[in-house]
Amino acid sequence: MQTHEARLDALRKELARRKLDGFVIPIADEHLSEYVGAYAQRLAWLTGFAGSAGAAAVLADKAAIFVDGRYTIQVRDQVDERLFDYRSIPQDDIGAWLAKNAAAGARIGYDPWLHTAGWVHAASKRIAAAGGELVPVDGNPIDAVWEDQPAPSPAVAFVQDDALAGRSSAEKRADVAEWLKDKEFDAAVISALDSVAWLLNIRGADVDRTPVALAFAIARADGTADLFIAPEKTTPELLQHLGNAVRVRPRGEFEAALAEFSGKTVAVDPAFGVAAIIQALSAAGANVVAERDPTILPKARKNPVEQQGQRDAQARDGAAVVKFLHWLSVAAPHGSESELSAAARLQAFREETGLLVDLSFDTISAAGPHAAIPHYRVDEASNLRIDPGSIYLVDSGGQYRDGTTDITRTVWIGSADGTHAPSIEQKDRFTRVLLGHIALARQSFPPGTSGAQLDVLARQYLWQAGVDYAHGTGHGVGAFLAVHEGPQRIAKSRGGQAGTDQELLSGMILSNEPGYYKAGEYGIRIENLVLVEPRGIGGAEHAALGFETLTFVPIDTTLIDRDLLGAEGAAWLNAYHADVRQLLAPLLEGEALAWLETACAAI
């Protein structure tokens, strides 16, 4: 098996053969997906870095890897510092690093199928200013030296029934056609995998944790569409479902098909349309317009069928999580369980529903100091025992045909003899996180309000104690699609950061997940999913929206400072636990039901 040093050497030789002085390697596929298939894990193959976001730049005599603050520790554990310098984004910029470190006249390669046109434009300017040139490659040079590179997934695509989708593909395509006609566009390229899946009511198994099929689509102003997908991924059932108005074409024909739009006006989403698409359309003489994918907002606003599907999935998933928490309360105090064994047991409880399709992301099973790493992922090397007398955090979710779940619970692991108790500080921090969660869950707000305007509600009690958390408070969630779905989010506004300025609209689903993390000691996060809904307010002078809570699982009262929680906080928690008991008790029995009753007792 090649070492990473040997792989880097092989890449440099391939670059030299192509007369390139450098190359940029992102974690990306042709659809700019958050999670990518094994065939597209080029950065992991080259460097050993297993995170979900990052990039590397390689020159003949030096290389650097760029990651954000989530991966500061992980990148140092996984990537050899002798081979790659560690760089932090957004402070460090790949284009700037290349401009500074590449020789004058350097030709730096990039794969136009893995970058946005905006990135290409910015990086080109940086490199050109230093006397270099950014050059698109024909075929990724890593693919040329990756001898055992996995093939793209061969899994067949399947139909998401209208009874689950709530609207037919024909209806959705008609809406997109109206949008195109209103804008006087001829077509829109739909390249995000979850957008293709939503528009055509199809799903797949080509990306771990996200039920999508590798495909491109082009929606036209007459309500028809072209689907570009590998022929072996289709079935008679799928073709019958798509009907005559959707032309099914081999995925390999997609780039050539863009030449058919000479003289036409075509919309491409700059966030998901890779540079190669825009370059091919422009070369063909098409008028390319940068516009948000017309499926993004309709996909984010769940229809009544999708909303009910999410409620059903949450109840089923909640019962599985309760069974897990009961098991954990019995097993963990003996000190015999680990992060890996707990994650496996939780997955088993979800699988016992008989309806789990996949997890919605890799379970964050974090004991003690690992709970202080918000995006921790356990493996054999990092696996810790869950110690009695400590905090354990588990962030997990499931993919079901009727909904996608995401829940975090932080619990106190007692000891078999009952001698251990949380510290005053741990109870203070947990209660402040809970108070922020409650404040956001209860808030009403006028139409036009963005997630950035609500974010402070979840942080206020932590700020009062001089502490904070470094991640967003909420992300959008799909309907049997991506667990992280835009454009909505709840987070601090950072100069127009994606999603923070998007107004929250009725039907959108988001997470509510404030947290607190003390490096090297413990971490806390409480996460439920919520649905934006109309809110009636007596005497109100304007319309209002609010949140319907969708996730129902007990919150650990052992970690609560009752005085700090106060009467209003206790009233919310007691009402929430009464709802948990009413919803989940019929789905449980025996010891798990008894545990639920105790966990939901009023405080």
TrEMBL record:
Ranges where the Peptidase M24 C-terminal domain occurs: 545-603
GO MF terms, alphabetically ordered: metal ion binding; metalloaminopeptidase activity
Any one annotated GO CC term: cytoplasm
UniProt domain Peptidase M24: residue ranges: 311-533
Family matches, as InterPro entries: Creatin/AminoP/Spt16_N, Creatinase/aminopeptidase-like, Creatinase_N, Pept_M24, Pept_M24B, Peptidase_M24_C, X-Pro_aminopeptidase_P
Keyword set, alphabetical order: Hydrolase, Metal-binding
Pfam families per the UniProt record, alphabetical: Creatinase_N, Creatinase_N_2, Peptidase_M24, Peptidase_M24_C
Creatinase N-terminal domain segment(s): 7-139
UniProt keyword DNA repair, yes or no: no
Protein family (similarity comment): Belongs to the peptidase M24B family.
Protein name (Swiss-Prot/TrEMBL): M24 family metallopeptidase
Organism whose genome encodes this protein: Croceibacterium xixiisoli
